């Protein structure tokens, strides 16, 4: 089960990062800078939510993956990468 969880965490994280619309974020950032505001909420430029990514990664482990990535994004990814290295 732990191997599947680690794989699902990494897959969901990859899906989430790949869903980021870099072009729209770049344009919004430039507009914010030009307007003098200078701040943009980059979370709005993801096409997939963490829940959608967790569902696509592994439907059975969707809830644990969602909770781990929502609360402990970096730590979960690091754990999953290290766990899979040790198990190889």
In words, what does this structure look like?
- It is elongated and about 50 Å long.
- The protein is built from five helices and no strands.
- The two termini are about 15 Å apart.
- It has one domain (about 1-85).
- Helix 3 packs across helix 4 (about 60-70).
- The chain is mainly α.
- Helices cover about 75% and strands about 0% of the residues.
| Oligomer status | single chain
Poorly predicted regions are none
Mean pLDDT: 95
Structural class: mainly alpha
Distance between the termini: 15 Å
Q: How much strand content do the residues show?
A: under 5%
Main beta sheet strand tally, sense and closure: none
Q: How many helical stretches?
A: 5
Share of helix, binned: over 70%
Topology:
Layout: H1 2-18, H2 22-35, H3 50-57, H4 62-71, H5 73-87
Helix pairs in contact: 1-3, 1-4, 1-5, 3-4, 4-5
